[in-house]
C-alpha cells in the first residue's frame, strides 16, 4: 500500500538534501585541497579517490563503495573536461555517504543499553528464507567440453538443459550460437534457490566463428533491459524478477598451450558485462606438469590482454581464489566405489579420478566459490557494478526504454501471434 501524500512530502524534505557533520565536511575539504594542484579550484576524480583511500580508509570497507563512488565522480567530471570543483565533490560525497554507507569511522552515538538492534539479522534471515534466493548461471564453451556434466555435478541434480530434455536423441549442431535457459528450484535444509542454467549450444563450433559471442552479449543485455523496465515501472512488483546473469562459467579446451584468439576476444567482452569464472574442462586429460604450465600461460594471457575474471574478494565477505583461477575441473554424474564409499568420479584403467578430491582437481574450490562462500557476492556485484554500468549507459544515451509484454516481447514489435 502506498504511503499517504503527507508522509511522502515529509520523507522528501528530510532526504532530498542530506547534510554531513561539519567535521566530515572539513575533512573532505582537506582531501580536495591535497588532491588539487591548481590552487584548490579543480581536481581529477582519480586523485580524489586516491586521497580518500589514504585519509578515510574505513569507508571503502563497504562492498563496492569504491566502484559506485568512482562512477558518480566520473559522471560529474565528464561534464567539466574530467575535473571537479569543491562543491561538486562535496555534493557527490554527501549523496554517497548518506545513501551507500554508514561506516563513517568514529561517527557512532553510544547507547545506554540493549534496545534490540542485535535481533535485526534474525529478522532478515527469516524474510530471506521465506522469499528464497536467485542464481542465474550461464555456460559458455565449445561442444564436447562437458558443460552439462559439470553443472549437474556442481549441484548434484539434473539441472542442465541436456539432462532436462525429455528426448535424449543426439542433437544436430546449431548453425549459430543459440541461447537455451532452464529453471529449477533447489532446496537444502529449508533454503530454496531458484537456479536458472543458460546454455549456449553452437558457440565456437563453426568454421567461421566471427562474432559468435554476439548472441551471448545480446542475451545478457536483454536481461539487464528487462530488469530496468521492471525497475522503472509506475506500478512495480514487490520483488522484481531477476533474470540477470550472475555468473558465466567459461570452459577452456584442455590443449595444454595457451588461450585461443576466440577465447581472448570472447573473454575480453564478457568480463565487461558479467562475472566470468574460467575453468579448464576435462583437466584429467593433462598431466600435473602440463596442467601447471597451461594455467601459468592462461594467467599470462589474461594479464597481457587486461582481462579481469572473477576470483572472489575477501574484503567483500567472501573467499579469494585468484591464485587458483582458472580452475582445473573434472565433472561426472557417475558414482564409483572408492575405499568403501560411493564417490563421483571418472573411472580409468589406473584408478578413479575423484571430482571432490582436492588432490585430483579443483572442482571443490569452484563449487565453494560459486555457492558456499561467494554466491551472495556474485549477485551483489552483478547488481552494483555490471547492471549499474549498463543502467548508466542506457539512461545516458537518452533512448526510450522499450516496454515489454508479459511474455518478454517488445510491445513495439507485437502482432496477433505474440499477444
From TrEMBL:
Gene3D superfamilies: P-loop containing nucleotide triphosphate hydrolases
Any one cellular-component term (Gene Ontology): cytoskeleton
Annotated Septin-type G domain residues: 131-397
Membrane-spanning residues: none
Any one GO molecular-function label of the UniProt entry: GTP binding
Alphabetical UniProt keywords: Cell cycle, Cell division, Coiled coil, GTP-binding, Nucleotide-binding
Any one Gene Ontology BP term: cell division
Pfam families reported for this sequence: Septin
Similarity remark: Belongs to the TRAFAC class TrmE-Era-EngA-EngB-Septin-like GTPase superfamily. Septin GTPase family.
Protein name per UniProt: Neuronal-specific septin-3
Source organism: Galendromus occidentalis (western predatory mite)
Name of encoding gene: LOC100899426
